[in-house]
Fold:
Amino acid sequence: MLKNMGKLDRIIRLVIGIILISLIFWGPQTYWGLLGVILIITSFIGFCPAYWPFKISTRKNKEQNV
Structure:
């Protein structure tokens, strides 16, 4: 799988994902917080499927390492 996310993008997604998941327990307690799981998974694998059709990459080096 090609990686298309840079380090800053991955960190931001991870933080927002954790915040969204915490809303399930301490916030309005809705299932919208489960969207944070998607953000956390994409931050760990370094690939965003939404970026792919538009050929967007936030990586500094343009070499798409596997």
Observations:
- The chain has a mean pLDDT of 88.
- Residues 7-54 form one domain.
